[in-house]
Design goal:
single chain, Arylsulfatase, C-terminal domain, 2 domains, 10-stranded mixed sheet, 4-stranded antiparallel sheet, 18% strand
Length: 508
């Protein structure tokens, strides 16, 4: 009876949102964020070497955006912006977070979770966090707060950092799961002892070799960035990550099906170290990177099945996106380069992860809500940073003054409404420390690059170590790969966009 009643409310909710009148019923929202998934990595965006039937189904039943973006080409800043609706370059400390980073988003900061929570939603984040925990640093053996529960989430089940960084443990709400107090967990940036086993000292024992940088503590035959000891009972196996997050998500959805809910499902599958479950290993010709894409697609399908089984499909908005564009060799020798074949991870675009070119931030972006969102392809510009304002609007929650300042309400575009417009312009950043930025404004794309001055003896002391700024302009309809700089032929437009970008990010 409960499910039937909820289904009736679902239909009413969909009809209300289509009509001009107000509606009290609110949609469930599941935001699925992939990790390092490129524009060309899934079937509905052109991939043929890897099959993604579940993602393709989402696209076939909803809106597939050809100008869907994340706000940065690395993980931490994009996740910060998705939650806060604020460009990450506006806040220090939003670069790729180290293993022992404190909470980057402090209590009291409005987030998409706190906004929906205030509107009566149950909220959860399950998967990769990588936004720091604790203050001034994580207390791995005590309460890990502040964290997600202090910024609007009712529940969290996390990988605290990212899996190429230590530690390999789950955090459930405020504590490390299954931690034995007799075996305390220590996490640090320096060797805890001279005989500590690392990827440098015991490289021959690794089941996945590192190519650069990832040669700290070894766990599960894989060496990571950073060092840790203890917590043996709490450590997970890389191959089981996706299964555990699907299990936790399905359980949470079932527990909260009678209320409107918001689930942020933050996958890790395509990020290094790529170590999919054994049942996915070898299912593609592209090595573990391709296999991990298939595993991610399976995760999407499992969430879709659970929503359908509970009779919630017609009142659940799915949003699928990625935290940045693709990368092949990102520190491990896993065959991603050698087995790539004709596959184009970034599709027709240049660059990828760490880049301000289109391949770094233009990614798969799909919305599905059967009965409300029509099937189709949208050219409107939308971004993950717009989710706070857009989802708050759908939930009929007003933004506090000054909150989510860079988030644009593009709800109508996300719903595929006729004539709906996306955002007018978008700033794209990398990790936020280089000073490189992109500005997409309509059909135009401005790229600003900062380069360090030379340090040779013949260079004057004044010039040595200085920074120069260069700009390039691209006309995307004719040059999606950003190969032809047309700034010299369009000086007025170039200067207009330089002034616009400088006004937003600063000229220095």
């Amino acid at each position: 009876m409960l499910v039937s009643t909820h289904r009736f409310v679902c239909v009413v909710a969909a009809l209300c949102l289509i009509s001009a009148g107000p509606c009290r019923a609110k949609p469930n929202v599941i935001v699925i964020m992939a990790d390092d998934l490129g524009y060309g990595d899934v079937g509905c965006y052109g991939a043929t070497a890897v099959k993604t039937p579940n993602i393709d189904q989402l696209a076939a039943e909803g809106q597939r955006f050809t100008s869907g973006y994340c706000s940065a080409s690395t993980c931490t800043p994009t996740r910060f912006s998705l939650l806060t609706g604020m460009y990450a370059f506006r806040q220090k400390g939003t670069g790729i977070a180290p293993p022992a980073a404190p909470a980057i988003i402090q209590p009291g900061t409005p987030t998409v979770a706190s906004l929906l929570q205030s509107g009566g939603y149950q909220t959860a984040v399950i998967g990769k966090w990588h936004l720091g925990l604790g203050d001034p640093e994580p207390d791995w053996n005590g309460e890990l707060k502040p964290g997600p529960l202090e910024i609007g989430f009712n529940h969290c089940f996390l990988l605290p950092t990212t899996n190429d960084r230590v530690p390999q443990v789950f955090v459930q709400d405020h504590r490390v799961l299954n931690l034995d107090p007799k075996d305390p967990l220590w996490v640090g940036s320096k060797l805890p002892a001279e005989d500590h086993v690392t990827g440098l000292s015991h490289r021959e024992t690794l089941k996945m070799n590192w190519s650069h940088g990832h040669n700290g503590t070894i766990h599960n035959g894989i060496s990571r960035i950073g060092f840790y000891t203890g917590g043996k009972a709490a450590r997970f196996r890389d191959e089981d990550l996706a299964d555990e997050w699907v299990k936790q998500s399905n359980s949470w959805i079932e527990e909260n099906q009678s209320k409107p809910f918001f689930l942020f499902f933050a996958a890790h599958d395509i990020h290094v170290p790529r170590m999919p479950h054994e049942r996915f290993q070898g299912v593609t010709t592209m090595g573990f990177r391709g296999d991990s894409i298939v595993q991610f697609d399976w995760c999407v399908g499992e969430l879709m099945k659970t929503v359908a089984r509970l009779g919630l499909t017609e009142n659940t908005l799915f949003v699928l996106c990625s935290d940045n564009g693709p990368v092949l060799d990102d520190g491990y020798q896993d065959g991603a380069v050698e087995k790539l074949g004709e596959h184009a991870p970034a599709g027709p675009f240049s660059g990828g992860k760490y880049s301000v070119y289109e391949g770094g931030t233009r990614t798969p972006f799909i919305t599905r809500w059967p009965g409300t969102i029509p099937a189709g392809v949208s050219e409107q510009v939308v971004c993950t940073i717009d989710l706070p304002a857009s989802l708050a609007a759908l939930a009929e929650v007003s933004l506090p003054k000054g909150a989510c300042a860079d988030s644009v309400n593009v709800a109508n575009a996300l719903l595929g409404k006729p004539g709906a417009k996306g955002r007018d312009f978008l700033v794209q950043q990398d990790n936020g420390v280089s000073g490189n930025f992109g500005l997409r404004a309509g059909d135009w794309k401005l790229v600003r690059m900062k380069t360090k001055g030379k340090s040779e003896a013949k260079v004057s002391k004044k010039e040595r170590g200085s920074t120069s700024v260069g700009h390039a302009l691209y006309f995307l309809p004719e040059d999606p790969g950003e190969e032809k700089d047309v700034s010299a032929q369009n000086t007025e437009k170039t200067q207009e966009l330089i002034a616009k970008l400088d006004a937003i990010v600063g000229a220095k």
